[in-house]
Fold this protein.
Amino acid sequence: MLEDKFSEVSASLLSAYDSGELLGALDEGHSGWQKWVKGFSKSLKRKGKSLFMPLRVLLMGKLHGPGMGPSILLLYKAGKSGVAAAEVGFITLDERFNMLRQLDWDSLNQDQPQPEPAASLSS
């Protein structure tokens, strides 16, 4: 995922969060989330796995799991209402986005193994 411009997805997601666009969509519930994802998809020119895998990792911290819509809405509502305590390991959306802001994408990209050059076919 790092090789697939993962940092650009993160930057766009942070921008949508900081502008209030994402939170406004979540306030509208499931239909707001769906509408936001559709617009986000178009702005990034991504769809399917190339959109949802990075979103899932950035928002949920997992590669696999239940549906994103219901999960992100639950995270949003639980964090907003304060119903889940930090003692149980609950991380609010605000905390998740603060974590994303602290990531050093350049360092992560440098830690990735570089592709080996193709072997020469000449003898």
Q: What stands out?
A: The mean pLDDT is 83. The chain has one domain: 2-110. The helical segments are 6-18, 21-27, 30-44, 49-60, 68-81, 93-102, 105-110.
